[in-house]
């Protein structure tokens, strides 16, 4: 039994479940905030009536705190904590334990695993330090200005990490940086602030309004960072994103799109709309897909009508057949059933070869066999010519 694969599945499933719980509660409370109306009676700052699941709900919000502590108070925190713990565990299992296969790209930088792991952990820690300092500075008093600067920092980090790691590894570390910031906001700012408010109420003191304002700001930031993180979580399934010549630019465009979409929803919750924002979303979609298509057309392989399987078989033998053969020597069975040990097998897999070995260049894993650009171009030419046997 392959314990590593089962552990991978368990962590990925846990990450998905807890992520849904965290994001769901986050989206709900932002929606709730944007739909509150002044109460008809009482000292709450806002209220909302809603219906769900056959019942009616009456939610009230106190801007700082109620006059008296309720007997039972629910804290929304474990969803965030377990999302981060499961995500970091998955990052460790896949990209740190398997650093040579998934994180290191020897064509960019011949790192030892400990060096790559150190850079990755340093980037994650640096992300929180930079973000937190921004929030505490004068810049933090203007959410729009800070958002622009923070976005620029992340784009720069994506560019820098792409010079060091595999494109997938760079993407996942940007996701880890942002995810860590979001979880740290809950663990280090929002929950401690709420605890101080509760302690003040118990002691019969007036809570500090700044604590609630600070927590609300960090919660708002988390709301806007959610969709870019979700994109990164699924991006490894789509090589046309991280496999671009400038994957950091694709990430920047899609992340900007995610932020814009989130802002549209936030405006709609308030009963507002912005035609210019809709136009910006359309422009971002066109820019992203257009850029990827332009890149692909620019590096399209010239057809090689004279190339046959015999011409590319040495490439497969050198870089692929230890795993992708009917009886591989590196593992019990060919991964995903992909076999390249005959003209028929390889021809049937030509589109997949194009996607992972020519376009995205994620195979061989970690490029441990040092497949050259010339060899990739030859494979592309063979495929462009019809993948002839």
TrEMBL record:
Query: Would the keyword tRNA-binding be found if you checked this record's keyword annotation?
Result: no
Q: Could you tell me the superkingdom of the organism this chain comes from? A: Bacteria
* InterPro entries xrefs: Cyt_c-like_dom_sf, Urate_ox_N
Q: Locate the Urate oxidase N-terminal domain: which residues? A: 3-288
Record keyword Transmembrane helix present = yes
| Molecular function as annotated in GO | electron transfer activity; heme binding
Keyword tags: Membrane, Transmembrane, Transmembrane helix
Q: Where are the transmembrane segments?
A: 12-31, 78-98, 113-131, 143-165, 171-191, 248-265, 277-294
Protein name per Swiss-Prot or TrEMBL: Urate oxidase N-terminal domain-containing protein
């Amino acid at each position: 039994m392959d314990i590593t694969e089962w552990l991978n599945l368990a962590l990925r499933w846990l990450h998905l479940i807890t992520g849904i719980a965290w994001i769901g509660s986050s989206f709900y409370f932002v929606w709730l905030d944007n739909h509150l109306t002044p109460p008809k009676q009482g000292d709450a700052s806002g209220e909302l009536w809603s219906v769900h699941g056959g019942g009616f709900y009456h939610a009230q919000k106190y801007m700082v705190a109620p006059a008296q502590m309720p007997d039972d108070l629910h804290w929304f925190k474990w969803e965030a904590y377990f999302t981060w713990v499961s995500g970091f565990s998955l990052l460790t299992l896949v990209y740190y334990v398997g650093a040579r296969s998934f994180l290191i790209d020897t064509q960019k930088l011949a790192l030892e695993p400990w060096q790559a792991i150190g850079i990755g952990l340093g980037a994650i820690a640096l992300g929180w330090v930079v973000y937190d300092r921004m929030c505490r500075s004068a810049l933090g008093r203007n959410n729009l200005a800070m958002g622009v600067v923070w976005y620029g920092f992340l784009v720069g980090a994506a560019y820098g990490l792409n010079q060091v790691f595999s494109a997938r590894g760079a993407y996942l570390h940007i996701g880890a940086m942002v995810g860590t910031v979001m979880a740290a906001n809950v663990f280090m700012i929002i929950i401690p602030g709420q605890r101080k408010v509760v302690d003040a109420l118990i002691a019969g003191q007036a809570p500090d309004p700044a604590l609630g304002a600070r927590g609300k700001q960090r919660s708002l930031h988390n709301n806007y960072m959610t969709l870019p993180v979700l994109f990164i979580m699924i991006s490894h399934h789509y090589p046309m994103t991280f496999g671009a010549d400038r994957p950091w630019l694709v990430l920047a465009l899609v992340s900007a799109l995610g932020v814009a979409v989130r802002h549209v929803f936030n405006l709609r919750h308030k009963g507002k709309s912005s035609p210019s924002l809709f136009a910006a979303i359309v422009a971002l979609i066109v820019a992203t897909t257009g850029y990827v298509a332009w890149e692909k057309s620019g590096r399209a392989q010239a057809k090689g009508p004279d190339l046959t399987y015999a011409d590319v078989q040495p490439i497969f033998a050198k870089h692929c057949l230890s795993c992708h053969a009917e009886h591989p020597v590196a593992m019990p069975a060919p991964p995903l059933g992909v076999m390249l040990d005959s003209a028929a097998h390889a021809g049937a897999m030509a589109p997949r070869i194009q996607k992972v070995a020519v376009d995205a260049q994620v195979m061989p894993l970690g490029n441990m066999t040092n497949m050259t650009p010339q060899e990739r171009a030859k494979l592309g030419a063979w495929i462009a010519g019809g993948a002839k046997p």
